[in-house]
Amino acid sequence: MRLWPWLKRRSRENSELDEEIRFHLLQEAQLRIDRGEPPDAARRSALRDFGNVTLAAELTRQMWGWSALERAAQDLRFAARMMRRSPAFTAVALAALALGIGATTAMFSVVNAVLLRPLPFPDAGRLVMVWERPPEGGLTNVVQTQNFFDWRKRNRSFENIAALFRLPANLESEGDPVQVPGLRVTAGFFEILGTPPLLGRTIRPEDDVTGGPGVVVLSHGLWQRRFGSRQETIGRKMIVDGSAREVIGVMPPGFAFPAIPRVDLYLPMQIHPSEALLDGRNYSTVARLRRNTSLADAAADMRAVAAQTARERPDMNAKWSATVVPLLEQTVGDTRTTLLVLLGAVAFVLLIACANVSNLLLMRANARRREIAVRAALGAGRWRLFHQLAMESLLLALAGGFAGFLLAWWGVPAVRTLLPATFPRAGEIEVDRGVLAFTLLVSVACGLFFGIFPALQVDRGRLGEGLRAGGRYGSAAHRSLRNLLVVTEVSLAVLLVVGAGLMLRSFVLLHEVDPGFRPERLLTLRMMLFPQASSFAQLLERRAALVAGMLERIRALPQVESAASIHMLPLTGLQSGTWYYRADRPAPPPGDMSGGDVSVVSDDYFRTMGIPLLAGREFDLRDRRGSPHVALLNQAAARANFPGENPIGKRVKVTWSMGPEEVEIVGLAADIRHNALDATPEPCLFLPHAQQPSGFVSLVVRTRAQSLSAVSAVKEQIRAAAPHQGAQEIETMEDVVSASIARPRLDVAILGVFGLLALALAALGIYAVVSYSVEQRTREMGIRLALGAAPRSIRRMVLREGLLLALAGIGAGLAAALGLTRYLASLLYAIRPTDALVYAAVSAVLAAAIAGCFVPARRATRVDPAVVLREE
Amino acid sequence: MAQPEPYQNRIELLQGTLDMLILRTLQWGPCHGHGIGLAIRASSADVLQVEHGSLYPALHRLRREGWIASEWKITQNKQRARYYRLTAKGRKRLAAEESRWDRMVAAIARVMRPA
Questions:
Q1: Measured between CB atoms, does A461 come within 8 Å of chain B?
Q2: φ and ψ at A446, to 5 degrees?
Q3: Which B residues 26-65 touch A at CB under 8 Å?
Q4: What is the pLDDT of residue A398?
Q5: Contact A553, A204 (CB under 8 A)
Q6: B114 touches chain A (CB under 8 A)
Q7: A176 touches chain B (CB under 8 A)
Q8: Which residues of A touch B5 (CB under 8 A)?
């Protein structure tokens, strides 16, 4: 149906009906005049005989069959007029709704992008990661090379499986070497994900063989930065890790392996088959399930395959198994819990906002009883009144939803920039059509929720009362409903404030954790060494020489106090480990191997980091290649391996860069928080970089002044010592520490905002209810004052009413908090969900409640008895 | 709200019978709403009194069903009025209603005055 002709016909019909009824009344009046009645009386009795003209016209219009839409439009117009007529009410209700719906929408757009939407690959539900499962401690472990080969050959569950390994890549151009994040992948990686390249081709099986061609696939970002997005990039050579590689492909924008985002280039793995058996566990994997193969089937299949490899090579695999994790789950990780907690929190905020608006509407419905009674008397049916009130609620909800959507639209991109770099799928977070549909749904649901109470008050039986009482006194039922809503609001606010308080306290504790080293004035640079060497021994020698050369030059700088290196920097989430055992004991059987974390550090590392040395010495220039091999232990490792003994001078057998060898413990260092501030220190064995050099190197430089001011001087010395060596992620240790707790900081910020919002809304709710009740009881107050009541007692009476509501809400909120905050436990550090802090939180709510009651209480005492009594 | 005055010598119309009465009245020729009301009252010797307000919803409903049609005409007093007339479909409907009515009256009569 076209709208315009419909409207024209509609308006003609309306005027014709009016004319028809007018004609009828005229005829009837004429009839009566002809019978001899006086004209005035005739007209009146004609009108009376006709009955309720509006109702009759309304009923007639209903017969036309298309009036439901028109009625809706009419009620909508009326609702808009009502909104304009009470701007204060409208503004408060809209603000509450916009904040509630806006926060919910923003939160949902994150949940939608991170948890609900499939990963951006074709048929992404079939993508999984396959891990080894260690005998104890943890569910997933990176995969040993030969095991990967066996899995690839023997599994019956996957269309294909690929190994991947994250490795920084050194790029040179115009004499300014840099390092960028790279990913080595076996052939099949791109096919498994299913994303075709933007340009050229991806890595094929013939590229992924030892001695195969030097090829590289670029990310879209690197292509833009390095090659200015030129089409003729394909076939060009670039120097990667010191050798020329041909660019064979460019991936489209947004392409990333979701569990390892921010990769700039992809290189073929080119595993040497002869090394596969000797390798340690290094690789992550990605696989695509065959159609009609379930996750459980694949897991069972992989357990069987792993059992076979364990039988074949017990020294490597005894008691190890395998496990299959969906790629989405792997990507999202523990962010799921956080997001669900935050979504729950924001739902409470929305609920509070709705209760608030419902309360406001109820109060206004009371004030409008007279209007509604008049409308009923003039012929509005009960359904019609209900309809009209529902329309008003709906309009309010949709307007609030629109404002909320705008808030989210502006807010979400801002929130995205605040997310820590490790936040999964951060780049995919957006306000899309799904989110818009969600907002619409939530708005309508809110409208129904807060509109239903006032609309249900339309009761024909009581409408007459409204006329008589002149709409002055609220009914008792109304009042208890309003009180119930306020108590609900307060209890939800208590719940949120307690939750936010717990998180805040947990975060403060986390922030104050002593990492075990002194992060101030400490500059860190991370790099991958890539010396060209003809043999493994030569490679190790050159790695050792490179670091020694760089450190020597950096230490000579006047602004540098000391400098050292560690292969994997603390609090970056990276660590390696290996097997070792006491040399004075027999080797444990395969599968019961003891071991732990390993850090490869240079001389002067502990002094530079400020880690106390508890016994013995740290590595120094005596510990060179060729000199007796040595090691240090941390306290946890000493406790685990030499309980009650002095470890200095003892020997352990360790498997590291070359087969098992004996090293002598020369020192004992204090524990530090290497893995995370909230993780207890793991046993760690320290090996000297000069004897066991690693390709991974992080330089730590203790400067005399502010550490970033030394960056260019340090880089210059690195250039001088190793002209082709780039570095990446140059930052202060304080930033590294801070970044390691970026997530809890974000959680606390978001939950804090929600808590404040909830508190403000609940205070507004109490304020509205109390001030309304004061207004309703103006006459009573006036009489009390006239009879000599002290203003103080009046104020106390009003305050008591508000406080009783607040107390009831706080009681209910505390009970709910005790029940619900245990879901926070996994997000909390070192405190239990029943922390004493809840009391502080509750007093904050109480203070807000009192503040909410104070203004109306003062107003109550200012009532002028004379004015009030005259009004009657 | 004021209670409606109690009906005295009038009989409230049975549900649905108003339609039939309107159709019946229009059998004599086109008429406007007011006229229809008068006619029903007159031909029932003032026993059946249609509340005027309820006449128009009924008229518009019948028109929507297609049993009657309407057009604007000028009355003898030179006033514009909407006249309703019976359609062919309406005639059929009236016949059906009449036979239904006859059956009902006979049935009620048998109940009330058993032979």
A1: no
A2: -60, -45
A3: 32-35, 37-38, 51-54, 56-57, 59-61, 64
A4: 92
A5: no
A6: no
A7: no
A8: none
A277: left (phi over 0), alpha (psi -120 to 50) or beta: alpha
Residue A379 is predicted with a pLDDT of 64
CB burial string A327-359: b at 16+ within 10 A, e below: bbebbbeebeebbebbebbbbbbbbbbbbbbbb
Domain spans of chain A, in order of start: 3-51, 142-319, 335-512+742-871, 531-724
Distance CA A537, CA A693 (A): 10
Domains defined for chain B, CATH in brackets: 17-112 (1.10.10.10)
Query: Which residues in chain B are closer than 8 Å to A65, comparing Cβ atoms?
Result: 64
User: Would you state the pLDDT for residue A460?
Assistant: 46
Q: What is the C-alpha to C-alpha distance for residues A267 and A217, in angstroms, rounded to an integer?
A: 7
| Residue spans of alpha helices (H) in A457-530 | 460-469, 476-511
DSSP-assigned states of every residue in A19-39: HHHHHHHHHHHHHHHHTT--H
pLDDT score for B39: 87
Q: Could you tell me whether strands A199-200 and A243-250 are parallel, antiparallel, or unpaired per DSSP bridges?
A: antiparallel
Pairwise CA distance, residues B87 & B91, whole Å: 6
Single-letter amino acid code for the residue at A815: A
Mean local confidence (pLDDT), B38-53: 78
Cα A107 from Cα A113, distance rounded (Å): 10
Q: What is the DSSP string of A145-202?
A: HHHHHHHHHH-SSEEEEEEEEEEEEEE-STT--EEEEEEEE-TTHHHHHTPPPSEE--
Instruction: Return all residues near A247 (Cβ < 8 A) that are at least 6 apart.
Output: A200, A215, A216, A217, A218, A227, A233, A234, A235, A236, A237, A238
pLDDT of B8 over the 70 cut: no
A363: number of Cβ within 10 Å: 22
- In Å, what is the CA distance from A47 to each residue of A36, A40, A43, A841, B22? 17, 11, 6, 66, 22
Interchain CB distance below 8 Å, B32 and A57: no
**Alpha-carbon distance A657 to A567, whole Å?**
13
pLDDT of residue A574: 85
Given the cut 0.90, state whether the ipTM is greater than it. no
Which residues does chain A have with pLDDT short of 50? 1, 460-461, 469-474
> Between A20, A62, A376, which is nearest B33 by CB?
A20
E-state strands within B1-97: 31-32, 68-74, 80-86
How much is the pLDDT for A458?
62
Closest CA to A132 of A591, A546, A448: A591
- Residues 6+ positions from B29 with CB-CB distance below 8 Å: B85
DSSP one-letter code for A422: T
Contacts of A60 in chain B (CB under 8 A): 56-57, 59-60
Distances (CA, A) of A393 to A89, A372, A376: 13, 15, 19
CA separation for the pair A757, A11 (Å, rounded): 47
For residue A29, give the chain B residue with the closest CA.
B34
pLDDT at A251: 96
Answer whether B100 touches A (CB < 8 Å). Answer: no
Each as own residue / partner, the long-range contacts of residues A552-555 (CB below 8 Å, 24 or more positions apart, any chain) are: A552/A721, A553/A717, A553/A718, A553/A720, A553/A721, A554/A699, A554/A701, A554/A714, A554/A717, A554/A718
The model's pLDDT over B56-109, given as tens digits with 9 standing for 90+, comes to: 888 888 888 889 998 898 888 788 889 999 999 999 999 988 888 888 888 888
Tokens of A141: 């472990």
A27 touches chain B (CB under 8 A): yes
